[in-house]
Amino acid sequence: MSPHHPPRLPRARTLRLAGLALLALASSAQATFSIVACDRDGRCGVAVATNNRAVGASVPYAQAGVGALVSQFETNPGYGPKGLALLAAGRSPEATLQALLDGDGGFDGTTIAERQVGIVDAQGRSATYTGAQARTSAWAGALHGDGYAVQGNGLAGEAVAIAMKQAFLAGRGTLAERLMASLEAGQAAGGQTIGKRSAALLVRTPDGAWQDIDLCVDGAAEPIVDLRRLLEQHYALQAIIRAERLARQDKPAEARTAIAEALRRSYGWDRIWRRAGRLAMTMGDRERTLDYLGVFLSVNPVWARQELDDPLYQPLHGQALFEAWRR
């Protein structure tokens, strides 16, 4: 795959309704905690974790400039596309929520008593709902305010939701970073009482394409930890692309700063270390090139030895360490 692989197209979420076999596995999101939020610049997103597999397949929905929502405990996958369409048509989150509940349809034999829903729109208005059956789980409830809604069920206690709210409101950085921090805070406060299995982070942006984030950990012992790694690697890729652009603009100091950020956030991603080595070589930083290639070699020796044969590194021929790597 090219280092500049084409951006992944947004998922055709409405088509999931046809995948009943998959939804039968992923639709029940009992023991779940999530946050939905929108920034005033039009970014809208969701962070969610659960004890079931593939939570990202059916629970989170978002649309830039419109809003974000989750349907959990017993998920009704129709809520996502219907809810976003209602928000896009100008309905408030409260009105959207009521319309969804009124038209629930009893998906998969369940009722609104088993729904938990959080909705926020691009104006910052929010609404939540926790059905009677969902409230019988270990702890279930929600907190919402300007620009966000936190909801959970099967949790260690209200402290989980409070920690998520506080982390989001106190956070800095992008919407994705604040959503991620909120999810981590919820886990640190006790998370779910019956285990953990999957997590997802979805952010839709006005620019779309490369700027969107759609990350899923479908089954893992530590899904939130793994989701953090994926998010950091997303930003590592953005940073190395920025470094390459700055180098082309003859701004070496800024480019080196961007390279450092990319490597710090790479979590050992071989592709980032390779690109850093190539960029350092084109900038004439031979010592840094050797440093970056050394890490690349330790992470992916087969690819790295192929890389060393590239004519780009001809100026390093004869250098002792470089020649030792080539043998």
Provide a descriptive summary of the structure in words.
- This protein has 11 helices and 11 strands.
- By secondary structure, the protein is α+β, with helices and mostly antiparallel strands.
- The chain has a 6-stranded antiparallel β-sheet with strand order 8-9-2-3-10-11, with helices on one face.
- A hairpin with an 8-residue loop joins strand 10 and strand 11.
- The chain is elongated.
Question: What's this, in brief?
Answer:
The chain is α+β, with helices and mostly antiparallel strands.
Mean pLDDT: 91
What is the H/E order? HEEEEEHHEEEEHHEEHHHHHH
Task: State the shape.
Answer: elongated
Which fold name fills CATH's third level, the topology of the largest domain? Answer: Glutamine Phosphoribosylpyrophosphate, subunit 1, domain 1
Strand order of the largest sheet: 8-9-2-3-10-11
- The CATH architecture of the largest domain would be 4-Layer Sandwich
Rounded radius of gyration (Å):
23 Å
- Helix content estimate: 40-55%
Class from helix and strand fractions: alpha+beta
Query: Sheet with the most strands?
Result: 6 strands, antiparallel
Q: Report the total helices.
A: 11
Strand content: 15-25%
Query: Into how many domains do the coordinates divide?
Result: 2
- Low-confidence stretches are 1-27
- CATH superfamily grouping of the largest domain: Aminohydrolase, N-terminal nucleophile (Ntn) domain
Distance between the termini: 27 Å
The number of strands is 11
CATH level 1 name of the largest domain: Alpha Beta
